[in-house]
Amino acid sequence: MRLQHTLGFFISLFILLMSASLSAQEEEIDTKVSKKDTTQQKTQYYGLRVGVDLSKPIRSFLDDNYSGLEVVGDFRVSNRYYIAAEVGNETRTIEEFPNLDVTSKGSYIKAGFNYNAYKNWLGMNNLIYAGVRAGFSTFNQELNSFTISTSNTFFEEDIRTDTVDFDGLSAVWLEVQLGIQAELFHNLYLGINVQLKNRITETSPDGFENIYIPGFGQTTDTSDFGVGYGYTISYLIPLFKK
Amino acid sequence: MKFKIAILITGLTILLSSCERDDICAETTPVTPLLVIDFFDIENTSEPKIPEGLVIVENGETVGLAFDAATISIPLRTNVDQTDFLFVLNAGSEELENPENVDGISFNYIRIEEYISKACGFRVTYDALDPTRTPQDNGFWIDEIQVINPTIEDETSAHIRIFH
Predict the structure, then answer these.
(1) How many CA atoms, within 13 angstroms, populate the side-chain half-sphere of residue B33?
(2) How confident is the model at residue A193 (pLDDT cuts 50, 70, 90)?
(3) Is the pTM of this model over 0.90?
(4) Of the residues A54, A65, A194, B63, which has the maximum number of CB atoms within 10 A of its CB?
């Protein structure tokens, strides 16, 4: 399961790096063109872009231990800045640990802004962006089963299968997002992004810990960092031109 | 150009942080502690005394643990509040001078479940340890049981002393 996650991540990163180098070339051409032709007015669309993260329903279909949905949106507020947010819901069962089986379930919201570093050609509305988000998640965890760890095998293994509920959990994190949004057809955008997250605070269950935080991902013992990725498809509702 | 470098650095950071493994329970992690027993001579109570040919079996079972030391560690059940052991001295001996002698010790305790980590899961520690001798066929070889520490959270020192 972790392999699949890592693989998707590598692909995202690869595409991202590729497109970054492509964009550098385009920018050079862009400056040449604009020097020749300075009389034309640039039409810039401002509006609300809404969409979904495609990776989550796809993963829900492929992975029995996962179901999730995320709605994404951004709103252009100036030439280069966009207010951006993601709202989602995830249910994830983690059974890869030898002594634990836990299901985490909950909703999250991430809000912040994107900075578009991409200089568009006339009439184009693509983005290569860096963004920051504050993330907030409320969730609960169900400990489906666990094993009492012993240093010997004198007695039979003590496996507890009574489900234990841990409710009212929450977590706050900060996130850096890098991504691109390319206009496929008029006002229809395909996007990919990678996310690096850092947990700020969390309410941990009594006598247990948060294993998976919806929106943040799986926690690790060694750091407060988490990673994520998204493949989005979204539609720009043009509200006004500039 | 700066942007490309920024992407690369961030990318590398993410890759490194995603390579961590925390699903293997390290052997050094303290899991459910064992009960540590010191054996002493009843005639000279400060002198450790190795019980000869000691085999400890759970009451009702046939397979046990053999020991040849004055300090031993044995597990207690994690699924119930009581473990009944048979302490067999001179196990299997047919010599008349040192005949096999079976004493029962019933350990009662409170169990406390404690979370360790993702990889190790949970462990049990014990409190209010109360051992009771239960008579078996041919008299007691164990003269006295003394509880030193009724709370079993680690294996650094003996929890009980057995004089014989």
Answers:
(1) 20
(2) very high
(3) no
(4) A194
**Subunit contact A16:B7, Cβ cutoff 8 A:** yes
Residue indicated by tokens 């669309």 = A45
**Pairing mode, if any, of strands B160-163 and B35-40?**
parallel
What's the mean pLDDT in B31-58? Answer: 90
Task: State the CB neighbour count (10 A cutoff) for residue B58.
Answer: 18
Give the C-alpha separation, B29 to A148, whole Å: 13
Tokens describing residue A118: 């991409």
The pLDDT of residue A23 is 46
- Choose from A4, A6, A95, A148 for mutation: most chain B CBs within 10 A: A148
d(C-alpha A74, C-alpha A95), whole Å = 35
Residues 6+ away with beta carbon under 8 Å from B12: none
What ipTM is given for this predicted complex? 0.77
Interface test with A, best of B118, B123, B152 (most A CBs within 10 A): B118
Considering only alpha carbons, which residue of chain A is nearest residue B80? A158
For residue B35, which of B127, B132, B164 has the smallest C-alpha distance? B127
